[in-house]
Each structure stands twice: as structure tokens, then as C-alpha cells.
């Protein structure tokens, strides 16, 4: 299973980032939710800041491009295999930086990818 960082996580069940954490967990993936406020999803505490993490396979983004800028160095330092840019998070600058470091970039929807078995 792919250890996944959900960047932009929230405890609001109406948000796609919440659903992503929930569905990733349901499918057996190790999930690390990272957001700006306290809370939890499916019993997993939402982390804040830029915690030291290891073995991240995938970063799935739920932050708009302007809010992503503060995380560029952090995301790249994790050396994930891929970054998923969910709808509304597409960011040519971060995509270029990632690709220059050999990180796969995907413009897609984590929820759709999970539902069709393409995650």
C-alpha cells in the first residue's frame, strides 16, 4: 500500500480532503493528514506544520497554488514517488520543480483514481 500525505486535510466531512483521507484508509493505505487546524479524520489526528515524515509514496494536494508555495521545499524534501494535483490545485511551477527531481506529477482526482482502481 502507498503511504500518502494528504496536504490540506480537514475534519470537515463536506470537503474532498476529508473524503480522501477516509477512502484511502478504507482501502488500506497508510494516511498522513496534514492541515492548518486541529481535528481528526477516521481516528487519524490531523498534523500541523511540517513534521518529519519518512517513506511517503504519494502527496495528494488539496491546497490552491498560492497556499502551496509555503510547502514547496517541504514537499520536495519528502522525496515522494508522485504528487497528485487534484482539481483546483494544478500548479505548473511546483510540477516543474518536482519533475526536475524525478518526481512523477499527476493531474487527477484522488477520489476518482481510488474508485476506478487506478490509485
Task: Describe the structure in your own words.
The structure is a single chain. The protein is of the alpha/beta class and 119 residues long. The protein has one domain (4-115): NAD(P)-binding Rossmann-like Domain (Rossmann fold), CATH 3.40.50.720. It has five helices and seven strands; from the N terminus they run βαββββααβαβα. Strands 2-1-5-6-7 form a five-stranded parallel sheet, with helices on both faces.
SSE order and pairing:
Layout: E1 4-7, H1 16-26, E2 31-34, E3 40-41, E4 44-45, E5 58-61, H2 65-68, H3 72-77, E6 82-85, H4 92-100, E7 104-107, H5 110-115
Parallel strand pairs: 1-2, 1-5, 5-6, 6-7
Antiparallel strand pairs: 3-4
Key attributes of the depicted protein:
119 residues, five-stranded parallel β-sheet, alpha/beta, 30% helix
How many E strands?
7
Beta-strand fraction estimate: 15-25%
For the record, what is the CATH homologous superfamily label?
Answer: NAD(P)-binding Rossmann-like Domain
Question: How does the helix and strand content classify structurally?
Answer: alpha/beta
- The Rg value, from CA coordinates, equals 13 Å
Number of helices: 5
Q: Work out the count of structural domains.
A: 1
Mean pLDDT: 97
Instruction: Please summarize the sheet with the most strands.
Output: 5 strands, parallel
Amino acid at each position: 500500500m502507498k503511504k500518502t500525505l494528504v496536504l490540506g486535510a480537514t475534519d470537515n466531512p463536506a470537503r474532498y480532503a476529508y473524503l480522501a483521507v477516509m477512502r484511502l484508509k478504507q482501502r488500506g493505505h497508510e494516511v498522513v493528514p496534514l492541515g492548518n487546524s486541529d481535528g481528526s479524520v477516521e481516528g487519524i489526528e490531523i498534523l500541523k506544520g511540517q513534521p518529519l515524515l519518512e517513506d511517503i509514496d504519494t502527496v495528494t494536494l488539496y491546497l490552491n497554488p498560492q497556499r502551496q508555495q509555503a510547502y514547496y521545499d517541504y514537499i520536495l524534501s519528502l522525496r515522494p514517488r508522485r504528487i497528485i494535483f487534484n482539481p483546483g490545485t494544478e500548479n505548473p511551477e511546483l510540477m516543474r520543480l518536482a519533475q526536475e527531481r524525478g518526481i512523477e506529477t499527476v493531474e487527477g482526482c484522488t477520489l476518482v483514481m481510488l474508485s476506478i482502481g487506478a490509485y
